[in-house]
Amino acid sequence: MNQTTTTLEPKTALMGRNRANLEVLAPEMKYCLYARKSSEEDERQALSIDSQIKEMLEMAVRDNIQINEIRKESHSAKDSGQRPVYNQLLADIREGVFNGVLCWAPDRLSRNAGDLGSIVDLMDQGRLIEIRTHGQRFTNSPNEKFLLMILGSQAKLENDHKGENVKRGLRAKCEQGWRPGRPPIGYLHDKYADYGQKKVFLDPKRAPIVKQIFEKMAHEQFSCRKIYRWLKEETDFRTKNDKFMTISMVQLMIREPFYYGEFEYPVKSNKWYRGGYDPIISKDLYTEANERLKRGNISRHECKEFAFTKLIKCGHCGSGITADEKFKKLSDGSVKRYVYYGCARSKDIDCKGGYLREEELVEQLVRLIDKLDINMLGIKRQFNKENERYYKFSKGVLGKAGVDFDKQKDIDIRNYAKYVLREGLILEKREVLGYLKGALIIKNKRIFSN
Protein backbone atom coordinates (compact mmCIF):
# COMPACT_ATOMS: atom_id res chain seq x y z
CA MET A 1 0.00 0.00 0.00
CA ASN A 2 1.42 3.25 -1.13
CA GLN A 3 1.53 5.97 1.44
CA THR A 4 1.80 9.70 0.66
CA THR A 5 3.69 11.69 3.19
CA THR A 6 3.18 15.52 3.47
CA THR A 7 6.01 17.33 5.07
CA LEU A 8 4.96 20.54 6.89
CA GLU A 9 7.29 23.50 6.65
CA PRO A 10 8.60 24.65 9.96
CA LYS A 11 6.74 27.67 11.34
CA THR A 12 9.88 29.72 11.56
CA ALA A 13 10.66 29.18 7.88
CA LEU A 14 7.16 30.32 6.89
CA MET A 15 7.44 33.45 8.96
CA GLY A 16 10.78 34.22 7.40
CA ARG A 17 9.36 33.89 3.88
CA ASN A 18 6.40 36.19 4.72
CA ARG A 19 8.76 38.74 6.19
CA ALA A 20 10.83 38.63 3.02
CA ASN A 21 7.73 39.17 0.90
CA LEU A 22 6.72 42.15 3.04
CA GLU A 23 10.16 43.65 2.63
CA VAL A 24 9.86 43.34 -1.15
CA LEU A 25 6.42 44.92 -1.16
CA ALA A 26 7.35 47.80 1.21
CA PRO A 27 7.81 51.03 -0.80
CA GLU A 28 11.11 52.82 -0.78
CA MET A 29 10.93 55.78 1.57
CA LYS A 30 11.91 59.14 0.10
CA TYR A 31 11.99 61.80 2.79
CA CYS A 32 12.03 65.57 2.51
CA LEU A 33 13.09 67.61 5.53
CA TYR A 34 10.92 70.73 5.77
CA ALA A 35 11.87 73.59 8.11
CA ARG A 36 9.86 76.79 8.54
CA LYS A 37 9.87 79.82 10.77
CA SER A 38 7.80 82.97 10.65
CA SER A 39 9.07 86.37 11.75
CA GLU A 40 5.70 87.19 13.27
CA GLU A 41 5.16 87.80 16.94
CA ASP A 42 3.40 84.50 17.62
CA GLU A 43 6.41 82.42 16.50
CA ARG A 44 9.24 84.19 18.26
CA GLN A 45 9.72 81.21 20.57
CA ALA A 46 9.99 78.67 17.73
CA LEU A 47 13.36 77.19 16.91
CA SER A 48 15.29 78.90 14.16
CA ILE A 49 15.40 77.18 10.77
CA ASP A 50 19.02 76.16 11.23
CA SER A 51 18.23 74.72 14.67
CA GLN A 52 15.30 72.73 13.29
CA ILE A 53 17.46 71.28 10.52
CA LYS A 54 20.23 70.39 12.98
CA GLU A 55 17.84 68.59 15.34
CA MET A 56 16.11 66.69 12.54
CA LEU A 57 19.38 65.62 10.92
CA GLU A 58 20.51 64.19 14.25
CA MET A 59 17.21 62.30 14.52
CA ALA A 60 17.63 60.98 10.96
CA VAL A 61 21.10 59.61 11.79
CA ARG A 62 19.81 58.05 14.98
CA ASP A 63 16.84 56.35 13.28
CA ASN A 64 18.73 55.48 10.06
CA ILE A 65 16.52 57.69 7.87
CA GLN A 66 17.78 58.71 4.43
CA ILE A 67 16.88 62.34 3.63
CA ASN A 68 16.60 63.06 -0.09
CA GLU A 69 16.23 66.82 0.12
CA ILE A 70 16.06 69.72 2.59
CA ARG A 71 13.63 72.56 2.01
CA LYS A 72 13.17 75.64 4.14
CA GLU A 73 11.25 78.90 4.05
CA SER A 74 10.49 81.93 6.22
CA HIS A 75 6.76 82.41 5.93
CA SER A 76 3.68 82.50 8.12
CA ALA A 77 1.42 79.43 8.01
CA LYS A 78 -1.70 81.24 9.21
CA ASP A 79 -3.30 81.43 5.77
CA SER A 80 -3.85 78.50 3.43
CA GLY A 81 -1.92 78.18 0.18
CA GLN A 82 0.38 81.15 0.76
CA ARG A 83 3.73 79.33 1.14
CA PRO A 84 5.46 78.69 -2.21
CA VAL A 85 8.00 76.15 -0.88
CA TYR A 86 5.33 74.23 1.03
CA ASN A 87 2.99 74.26 -2.00
CA GLN A 88 5.76 72.81 -4.15
CA LEU A 89 6.39 70.12 -1.52
CA LEU A 90 2.73 69.06 -1.69
CA ALA A 91 2.91 68.99 -5.50
CA ASP A 92 6.05 66.81 -5.38
CA ILE A 93 4.36 64.38 -2.97
CA ARG A 94 1.45 64.07 -5.41
CA GLU A 95 3.94 63.34 -8.20
CA GLY A 96 5.72 60.69 -6.12
CA VAL A 97 8.98 62.61 -5.64
CA PHE A 98 8.60 62.19 -1.87
CA ASN A 99 6.46 59.95 0.31
CA GLY A 100 7.78 60.97 3.72
CA VAL A 101 8.24 64.30 5.53
CA LEU A 102 10.47 65.22 8.45
CA CYS A 103 9.73 68.39 10.41
CA TRP A 104 10.30 69.69 13.90
CA ALA A 105 6.61 69.78 14.92
CA PRO A 106 3.16 69.45 13.26
CA ASP A 107 2.63 73.21 13.43
CA ARG A 108 5.64 73.68 11.10
CA LEU A 109 3.50 72.06 8.39
CA SER A 110 0.17 73.66 9.13
CA ARG A 111 -1.48 76.26 11.32
CA ASN A 112 -4.65 76.48 9.25
CA ALA A 113 -7.44 74.11 8.21
CA GLY A 114 -6.70 74.22 4.46
CA ASP A 115 -3.08 73.06 4.61
CA LEU A 116 -3.93 70.50 7.30
CA GLY A 117 -6.63 69.04 5.06
CA SER A 118 -4.17 68.79 2.14
CA ILE A 119 -1.72 66.78 4.24
CA VAL A 120 -4.37 64.39 5.55
CA ASP A 121 -5.80 63.97 2.05
CA LEU A 122 -2.39 62.92 0.73
CA MET A 123 -2.17 60.33 3.51
CA ASP A 124 -5.64 59.03 2.63
CA GLN A 125 -4.51 58.59 -0.98
CA GLY A 126 -1.44 56.65 0.11
CA ARG A 127 0.92 59.21 -1.44
CA LEU A 128 2.24 60.42 1.92
CA ILE A 129 3.23 57.37 3.97
CA GLU A 130 4.84 58.95 7.00
CA ILE A 131 5.38 62.22 8.83
CA ARG A 132 8.16 62.20 11.42
CA THR A 133 8.50 64.96 13.99
CA HIS A 134 10.65 65.38 17.07
CA GLY A 135 9.24 62.60 19.24
CA GLN A 136 6.19 61.67 17.14
CA ARG A 137 5.33 59.61 14.08
CA PHE A 138 2.19 59.85 11.93
CA THR A 139 1.12 57.29 9.32
CA ASN A 140 -2.07 56.42 7.44
CA SER A 141 -3.58 55.04 10.61
CA PRO A 142 -6.94 56.37 11.83
CA ASN A 143 -5.63 57.05 15.32
CA GLU A 144 -2.42 58.69 14.16
CA LYS A 145 -4.21 60.85 11.56
CA PHE A 146 -6.73 61.84 14.21
CA LEU A 147 -3.90 62.90 16.52
CA LEU A 148 -2.28 64.85 13.69
CA MET A 149 -5.54 66.68 13.01
CA ILE A 150 -5.95 67.47 16.72
CA LEU A 151 -2.45 68.97 16.90
CA GLY A 152 -3.01 70.95 13.70
CA SER A 153 -6.38 72.19 14.95
CA GLN A 154 -4.79 73.16 18.24
CA ALA A 155 -2.23 75.29 16.35
CA LYS A 156 -5.08 76.99 14.46
CA LEU A 157 -6.95 77.60 17.71
CA GLU A 158 -3.86 79.23 19.17
CA ASN A 159 -3.62 81.47 16.09
CA ASP A 160 -7.26 82.51 16.40
CA HIS A 161 -6.91 83.25 20.11
CA LYS A 162 -3.73 85.23 19.56
CA GLY A 163 -5.40 87.26 16.82
CA GLU A 164 -8.28 88.10 19.14
CA ASN A 165 -5.88 88.94 21.95
CA VAL A 166 -3.89 91.28 19.70
CA LYS A 167 -7.06 93.08 18.60
CA ARG A 168 -8.20 93.32 22.21
CA GLY A 169 -4.83 94.73 23.22
CA LEU A 170 -4.84 97.32 20.45
CA ARG A 171 -8.39 98.32 21.32
CA ALA A 172 -7.45 98.74 24.98
CA LYS A 173 -4.45 100.85 23.99
CA CYS A 174 -6.67 103.11 21.87
CA GLU A 175 -9.16 103.48 24.71
CA GLN A 176 -6.30 104.64 26.92
CA GLY A 177 -5.53 107.35 24.37
CA TRP A 178 -2.50 105.92 22.56
CA ARG A 179 -2.64 105.18 18.85
CA PRO A 180 -0.73 102.04 17.78
CA GLY A 181 2.20 102.65 15.47
CA ARG A 182 4.58 105.55 15.04
CA PRO A 183 3.28 109.05 15.84
CA PRO A 184 3.36 111.75 13.13
CA ILE A 185 6.03 114.43 12.82
CA GLY A 186 5.93 116.70 15.88
CA TYR A 187 5.71 113.85 18.42
CA LEU A 188 8.19 111.44 19.96
CA HIS A 189 7.84 107.98 21.48
CA ASP A 190 9.16 107.25 24.96
CA LYS A 191 12.07 105.12 23.78
CA TYR A 192 12.83 103.85 27.29
CA ALA A 193 9.37 102.37 27.92
CA ASP A 194 8.63 98.65 27.52
CA TYR A 195 7.33 97.29 24.23
CA GLY A 196 3.62 98.11 23.90
CA GLN A 197 3.81 100.65 26.74
CA LYS A 198 5.41 103.53 24.85
CA LYS A 199 3.65 106.85 25.35
CA VAL A 200 3.80 109.89 23.07
CA PHE A 201 5.30 113.27 23.91
CA LEU A 202 5.64 116.58 22.08
CA ASP A 203 8.80 116.99 20.06
CA PRO A 204 10.20 120.29 21.40
CA LYS A 205 12.12 120.91 18.18
CA ARG A 206 9.43 120.18 15.58
CA ALA A 207 6.06 120.70 17.34
CA PRO A 208 6.19 124.55 17.23
CA ILE A 209 6.91 124.51 13.49
CA VAL A 210 4.06 122.04 12.90
CA LYS A 211 1.74 124.54 14.58
CA GLN A 212 3.07 127.33 12.36
CA ILE A 213 2.33 125.19 9.27
CA PHE A 214 -1.34 124.99 10.23
CA GLU A 215 -1.45 128.72 11.05
CA LYS A 216 0.09 129.72 7.73
CA MET A 217 -2.36 127.52 5.86
CA ALA A 218 -5.40 128.77 7.80
CA HIS A 219 -4.58 132.46 8.48
CA GLU A 220 -1.98 133.53 5.92
CA GLN A 221 -3.53 131.68 2.96
CA PHE A 222 -0.34 129.75 2.22
CA SER A 223 -0.56 126.96 -0.34
CA CYS A 224 1.18 123.61 0.23
CA ARG A 225 3.80 124.62 -2.32
CA LYS A 226 4.45 127.90 -0.51
CA ILE A 227 4.67 126.09 2.85
CA TYR A 228 7.16 123.66 1.31
CA ARG A 229 9.33 126.56 0.14
CA TRP A 230 9.07 128.28 3.53
CA LEU A 231 10.10 125.11 5.37
CA LYS A 232 13.07 124.56 3.10
CA GLU A 233 14.37 128.11 2.83
CA GLU A 234 13.55 129.70 6.17
CA THR A 235 13.33 126.96 8.79
CA ASP A 236 15.50 124.10 7.48
CA PHE A 237 12.76 121.83 8.86
CA ARG A 238 13.56 118.14 8.48
CA THR A 239 11.93 114.86 9.40
CA LYS A 240 13.30 112.46 12.02
CA ASN A 241 15.20 110.79 9.16
CA ASP A 242 16.87 114.12 8.35
CA LYS A 243 14.92 114.52 5.11
CA PHE A 244 13.18 117.64 3.79
CA MET A 245 9.39 117.61 3.72
CA THR A 246 7.76 117.12 0.32
CA ILE A 247 4.60 118.84 -0.90
CA SER A 248 2.62 115.63 -0.51
CA MET A 249 3.89 115.27 3.06
CA VAL A 250 2.63 118.79 3.82
CA GLN A 251 -0.80 117.82 2.47
CA LEU A 252 -0.90 114.67 4.60
CA MET A 253 0.12 116.66 7.67
CA ILE A 254 -2.72 119.16 7.19
CA ARG A 255 -5.21 116.27 6.93
CA GLU A 256 -3.93 114.50 10.07
CA PRO A 257 -6.48 114.82 12.96
CA PHE A 258 -3.92 113.42 15.41
CA TYR A 259 -2.58 116.95 15.86
CA TYR A 260 -5.75 118.27 17.54
CA GLY A 261 -6.00 115.30 19.91
CA GLU A 262 -8.17 112.68 18.21
CA PHE A 263 -7.40 109.68 16.01
CA GLU A 264 -9.25 106.99 14.04
CA TYR A 265 -8.18 103.38 14.42
CA PRO A 266 -8.17 101.36 12.27
CA VAL A 267 -8.12 103.87 9.43
CA LYS A 268 -11.53 104.25 7.73
CA SER A 269 -13.21 102.23 10.49
CA ASN A 270 -15.09 105.30 11.79
CA LYS A 271 -13.93 104.41 15.31
CA TRP A 272 -12.56 107.54 16.93
CA TYR A 273 -10.64 107.92 20.18
CA ARG A 274 -9.57 110.85 22.34
CA GLY A 275 -5.78 111.01 22.61
CA GLY A 276 -3.97 110.83 25.94
CA TYR A 277 -1.22 113.17 24.68
CA ASP A 278 -0.98 116.96 24.38
CA PRO A 279 -2.45 118.30 21.12
CA ILE A 280 -0.33 120.68 19.06
CA ILE A 281 -3.27 122.65 17.60
CA SER A 282 -6.92 123.27 18.35
CA LYS A 283 -9.70 121.59 16.42
CA ASP A 284 -10.84 124.98 15.09
CA LEU A 285 -7.39 125.64 13.61
CA TYR A 286 -7.41 122.16 12.05
CA THR A 287 -10.83 122.80 10.48
CA GLU A 288 -9.80 126.19 9.07
CA ALA A 289 -6.60 124.78 7.57
CA ASN A 290 -8.44 121.89 5.93
CA GLU A 291 -11.10 124.18 4.50
CA ARG A 292 -8.31 126.24 2.95
CA LEU A 293 -6.63 123.08 1.64
CA LYS A 294 -9.93 121.88 0.18
CA ARG A 295 -10.56 125.19 -1.61
CA GLY A 296 -7.04 125.13 -3.03
CA ASN A 297 -7.50 121.59 -4.36
CA ILE A 298 -10.83 122.45 -5.97
CA SER A 299 -9.42 125.52 -7.72
CA ARG A 300 -6.43 123.56 -8.93
CA HIS A 301 -8.37 120.58 -10.32
CA GLU A 302 -11.43 122.28 -11.77
CA CYS A 303 -9.59 123.07 -15.03
CA LYS A 304 -10.47 121.23 -18.19
CA GLU A 305 -8.67 118.22 -19.56
CA PHE A 306 -5.79 119.05 -21.87
CA ALA A 307 -4.55 117.05 -24.83
CA PHE A 308 -0.84 116.62 -24.09
CA THR A 309 -0.51 116.43 -20.29
CA LYS A 310 0.97 113.22 -18.80
CA LEU A 311 2.44 112.34 -22.21
CA ILE A 312 5.52 114.58 -22.19
CA LYS A 313 8.22 115.03 -19.55
CA CYS A 314 10.36 118.00 -18.61
CA GLY A 315 13.87 117.69 -20.02
CA HIS A 316 15.34 119.68 -17.12
CA CYS A 317 14.14 117.79 -14.04
CA GLY A 318 12.10 114.80 -15.28
CA SER A 319 8.76 116.01 -13.91
CA GLY A 320 5.57 115.64 -15.87
CA ILE A 321 4.17 118.41 -18.04
CA THR A 322 1.10 120.31 -16.89
CA ALA A 323 -1.08 122.85 -18.70
CA ASP A 324 -2.83 126.08 -17.87
CA GLU A 325 -5.32 128.17 -19.79
CA LYS A 326 -5.56 131.95 -20.00
CA PHE A 327 -8.31 134.12 -21.45
CA LYS A 328 -7.79 137.51 -23.07
CA LYS A 329 -10.54 139.94 -23.93
CA LEU A 330 -9.99 141.43 -27.37
CA SER A 331 -10.91 144.91 -28.58
CA ASP A 332 -13.88 143.61 -30.55
CA GLY A 333 -15.38 142.19 -27.36
CA SER A 334 -14.55 138.57 -28.06
CA VAL A 335 -12.47 136.40 -25.75
CA LYS A 336 -9.50 134.39 -26.96
CA ARG A 337 -8.30 131.28 -25.13
CA TYR A 338 -4.62 130.42 -24.80
CA VAL A 339 -3.22 127.15 -23.47
CA TYR A 340 0.34 126.91 -22.14
CA TYR A 341 2.32 123.77 -21.33
CA GLY A 342 5.17 123.68 -18.83
CA CYS A 343 6.92 121.72 -16.10
CA ALA A 344 4.75 120.59 -13.18
CA ARG A 345 7.80 120.95 -10.86
CA SER A 346 6.89 117.82 -8.93
CA LYS A 347 10.55 116.74 -8.75
CA ASP A 348 12.18 120.16 -8.58
CA ILE A 349 10.12 123.07 -7.37
CA ASP A 350 12.76 125.46 -8.68
CA CYS A 351 12.89 123.98 -12.19
CA LYS A 352 13.59 126.66 -14.80
CA GLY A 353 11.68 124.97 -17.61
CA GLY A 354 9.63 127.58 -19.46
CA TYR A 355 6.14 127.48 -20.94
CA LEU A 356 5.15 126.71 -24.51
CA ARG A 357 1.91 127.69 -26.26
CA GLU A 358 -0.22 124.79 -27.44
CA GLU A 359 -0.17 125.94 -31.06
CA GLU A 360 3.63 125.97 -31.14
CA LEU A 361 3.77 122.61 -29.34
CA VAL A 362 1.46 121.06 -31.96
CA GLU A 363 3.53 122.40 -34.85
CA GLN A 364 6.71 120.99 -33.32
CA LEU A 365 5.03 117.61 -32.90
CA VAL A 366 3.86 117.70 -36.52
CA ARG A 367 7.42 118.31 -37.66
CA LEU A 368 8.63 115.44 -35.46
CA ILE A 369 6.14 112.97 -36.94
CA ASP A 370 8.32 112.46 -40.03
CA LYS A 371 11.36 111.60 -37.87
CA LEU A 372 9.81 109.34 -35.23
CA ASP A 373 9.04 105.64 -35.27
CA ILE A 374 5.28 105.10 -35.18
CA ASN A 375 3.07 102.16 -34.42
CA MET A 376 1.58 102.20 -37.92
CA LEU A 377 -0.89 99.42 -37.17
CA GLY A 378 -2.28 101.27 -34.14
CA ILE A 379 -2.80 104.54 -36.01
CA LYS A 380 -4.33 102.71 -38.97
CA ARG A 381 -6.86 101.08 -36.61
CA GLN A 382 -7.71 104.54 -35.31
CA PHE A 383 -8.13 105.80 -38.90
CA ASN A 384 -10.36 102.87 -39.81
CA LYS A 385 -12.60 103.50 -36.78
CA GLU A 386 -13.04 107.14 -37.81
CA ASN A 387 -13.65 106.19 -41.43
CA GLU A 388 -16.22 103.57 -40.37
CA ARG A 389 -18.00 106.14 -38.20
CA TYR A 390 -18.16 108.58 -41.13
CA TYR A 391 -19.39 105.83 -43.46
CA LYS A 392 -22.26 104.92 -41.11
CA PHE A 393 -23.11 108.59 -40.55
CA SER A 394 -23.25 109.29 -44.30
CA LYS A 395 -25.41 106.27 -45.01
CA GLY A 396 -27.69 106.44 -41.98
CA VAL A 397 -28.17 110.20 -41.53
CA LEU A 398 -27.38 111.88 -44.83
CA GLY A 399 -28.94 109.08 -46.86
CA LYS A 400 -25.99 108.60 -49.15
CA ALA A 401 -23.17 106.10 -49.19
CA GLY A 402 -19.82 107.34 -47.95
CA VAL A 403 -16.48 105.87 -48.79
CA ASP A 404 -16.35 102.26 -47.65
CA PHE A 405 -13.25 102.05 -45.46
CA ASP A 406 -12.74 98.42 -46.48
CA LYS A 407 -12.26 99.58 -50.08
CA GLN A 408 -10.13 102.58 -49.14
CA LYS A 409 -6.65 102.58 -50.65
CA ASP A 410 -3.62 102.72 -48.45
CA ILE A 411 -3.33 106.09 -46.76
CA ASP A 412 -0.36 108.11 -45.61
CA ILE A 413 -0.40 107.29 -41.89
CA ARG A 414 1.94 110.16 -41.01
CA ASN A 415 -0.28 112.72 -42.75
CA TYR A 416 -3.29 111.33 -40.89
CA ALA A 417 -1.39 111.65 -37.56
CA LYS A 418 -0.54 115.28 -38.41
CA TYR A 419 -4.18 115.99 -39.21
CA VAL A 420 -5.32 114.55 -35.86
CA LEU A 421 -2.74 116.59 -33.93
CA ARG A 422 -4.03 119.78 -35.55
CA GLU A 423 -7.77 119.12 -35.84
CA GLY A 424 -8.61 116.07 -33.72
CA LEU A 425 -10.43 115.84 -30.41
CA ILE A 426 -8.46 115.69 -27.16
CA LEU A 427 -8.86 111.91 -26.87
CA GLU A 428 -7.78 111.40 -30.50
CA LYS A 429 -4.67 113.54 -30.02
CA ARG A 430 -3.73 111.57 -26.92
CA GLU A 431 -4.18 108.28 -28.79
CA VAL A 432 -1.87 109.43 -31.60
CA LEU A 433 0.86 110.44 -29.14
CA GLY A 434 0.45 107.05 -27.48
CA TYR A 435 1.40 105.37 -30.78
CA LEU A 436 4.72 107.23 -31.01
CA LYS A 437 7.69 105.05 -30.11
CA GLY A 438 10.02 106.78 -27.67
CA ALA A 439 9.48 109.22 -24.83
CA LEU A 440 8.81 112.89 -25.58
CA ILE A 441 10.54 115.60 -23.57
CA ILE A 442 10.32 119.38 -23.61
CA LYS A 443 13.44 121.41 -22.89
CA ASN A 444 14.09 125.07 -23.52
CA LYS A 445 10.70 125.26 -25.23
CA ARG A 446 11.69 122.57 -27.75
CA ILE A 447 10.21 119.06 -28.15
CA PHE A 448 12.59 116.11 -28.43
CA SER A 449 12.34 112.32 -28.51
CA ASN A 450 14.77 109.95 -26.83
Report the major sheet: 5 strands, mixed
CATH architecture of the largest domain: 3-Layer(aba) Sandwich
CATH top level assignment of the largest domain: Alpha Beta
Total strand count, please?
17
Mean pLDDT, as a whole number? 81
The strand line-up of the biggest sheet is 2-1-3-4-5
CATH superfamily of the largest domain: Resolvase, N-terminal catalytic domain
The coarse silhouette is flat
The proportion of residues in beta strands is: 15-25%
First-to-last CA distance: 114 Å
| Percentage of residues in helical conformation | 40-55%
Task: Please count the helical segments.
Answer: 14
Count of domains? 3
Ranges where pLDDT stays below 50 over 5 or more residues in a row are 1-9, 20-24, 298-303, 405-409
Structural class: alpha/beta
- What is the third-level CATH name, the topology of the largest domain? Rossmann fold
